Batch of 2 targets.
Target 1
Amino acid sequence: MHVVVCSIVYKICVLNSRRTLRGSPTNLRFATQIVIMCWYLLLIFGIWIFVSFLTYRYLIQKKNLFQKEVFFKKPSNVLFVIAHPDDECMFFGPSITAMVQPSLSNSSSRRKQAKDVYILCLSDGNANGLGEARREELKKSCKILGLADSNVLIHNGPVFFEDSQNSVWDSKAVADTLHLYIKKLNIDSIITFDKDGISGHLNHKSIYHGVLQLMKNSKRRVAVRVFILETVSVFRKYLGFIDSVFIKPNALICTSDWINRTNIQNAMAAHKSQYVWFRRLYITFSRYLFFNTFIPIEIY
């Protein structure tokens, strides 16, 4: 895709230089400088892509520092907490596939694999009256990612969480709901959104604040480790694997190889009611289909 961008830039520069020549023959030197500048830009961009690709390949070979952190002492029961059906593949695909699909793990890292990986979706995505359809789409998507139906949980009360861009979920209600599932499933590690929610969606942010509420409540505090998915700028968000050059060397990272990235794209395609043109572009360019970077929550 980035090669196509280079070609487009080159064609634009050449066309502009030709127009300059036709309009004023005396501007030959100026047109030549434009072409040379375009070649320099293409060279710099090409080197950037090449270095980014090598960095991405290195991160894949390096495997998953995040997994080593999650499974530091023993295999863990891991709970991914999402707000809507499709969040699992739009944002958390690399980390889910890293834990449930063997193609990303060598024999040594498999010894520290999760005992069970669960997805907890706090709403059924019923914003447009498609709740039932989106429930089924979530199960199909998770099956492609490698999860069993029994490990895909869609919250159905007693507290109802509305799927809405304008709805802020009550932090205490989120905390109480999470406490229930943590105890029921014997969860050791929670993985969810950070305070910015990746896309800025209020429902995503509400989960983060619910987790904080749970961890700060001395009466209901639970012994779980919490990791939040790092939100990056819009510019970095759509750089794809090129964003790998901006990742810190000691970052907690999960990478998806090309096979698992294809699985993540297929999982998104399973959400037929949501698979519109801008989401097709998203799964092509988003860095969240290539890797996830996480931050452990520190509570003081």
Target 2
Amino acid sequence: NRNLISFYFYFVFFNQALDAGLLLDVMSKLHAHYGDEGISIIMTASMARAEFAIKYNGKRSICFDIENEYAIASSELIEVFHPESAMKNEPLKSKCEVKDLIDLLPADLTHELVQEGTDIPTYMAEYALIDINLDVGRRACCWMGDDRVFLSQDENRLVTMEEIDDIVSKLGGFGSDNRAGLEQKLHRISGMCNRNGEVIGLSMRVGRWFEGNAAMLVDFLLGSDKSILILGEPGSGKTTIVRDAVSVLASRHNVCVVDTSNEIAGDGNIPHPCIGDARRMMVPSLDAQSSVMVECVQNHTPHVMVIDEIGRPREVEAARTVKQRGVRIIASAHGDLRKLLKNKELRGLVGGVETVTLGDKAAKEEAERRSNGGANGQFSKTKAQRMGEPTFDIIVEVRRGEKHEWRITRDAKTAVDAILDGQKYKVESRTRDPQLSIIMFDFAEL
């Protein structure tokens, strides 16, 4: 019965009329088991689904079927037949601790960030503050989304070297990457140095943990063993997704975080509670990240390894080594899938690219295929193709300013082949309302 319902979920959800007779056959079996009343309920749920699609421009409402390995299911149908098995999106719970960052500032530079007459952060500071920038001899400012806000209305109020030194003295110390942090906090403070190595500027990035942030990926996290690469530009929310994914995975698996610059689990010897039961290996310097990845596999036998940012060729090779040893990887990198394939240092994450030479006949056939028969005698004898198996099976693309809409590629190999072939690739667009239990789903081509 569950297989029958699961098929109907799949059919209605994907709305692909593969064979009308097949649908009729399933409906007859459903009718035989559930009778007229059951069919009536199914049709009512299907009508609700159709109304949702009309209201939200063709998008579908989904949840995840816990008993069916967290597979995507129609929200309306599973609510009727197996409501106890439905895992829905929960409203996000922001855990920011931004006050600890604001407390580092001189008192007269906090007025734009705290409620009047108190030291309580404003709503904007709690939810929209991204960075605080301090440079010697210049006005202090912060970024609220895409807006710059000066921390003092007095144009002559400039940051002093003494104020920078005072803040630096409260930190855990800068590493070779010029990054520092606060004990068991997720905030990142990066230094700008002069030629003498003195810190003369600070970029104070707010670290946030959104509990439930990874819920849109639960079918991949808990319902599969595939490796996942999260792509996005700086500030797009990659790290916040990774943090919650760690907590979700650690509830079931032996998860180890290779934490460069303590970006995922915060500064200090004790990791931040956001990673749940996962363990954390700190990386002494950027140059050591690849060796720590291999050491983690050799010494600590994790089921899953999590790396916040892969950005250098040695880390690409280390990720391949880790995957070949049977360890699942969750990681992030900058860019999107098309840009990644143009990045010679990082494209090995999705199989790499090589150029092959074609014979005259093969080159002509390739040119005609790409131009639908209109090559007009012009063709190239070289062709770019994927070099090997991707290290990551699933790609999640996120964009700055659109943190609740993710584009997911289920099959990295097929997508890479399509891009190299000059074609579009298929993605799933998943969107949520952070205050409600709705996850919306649609297909797209990029």
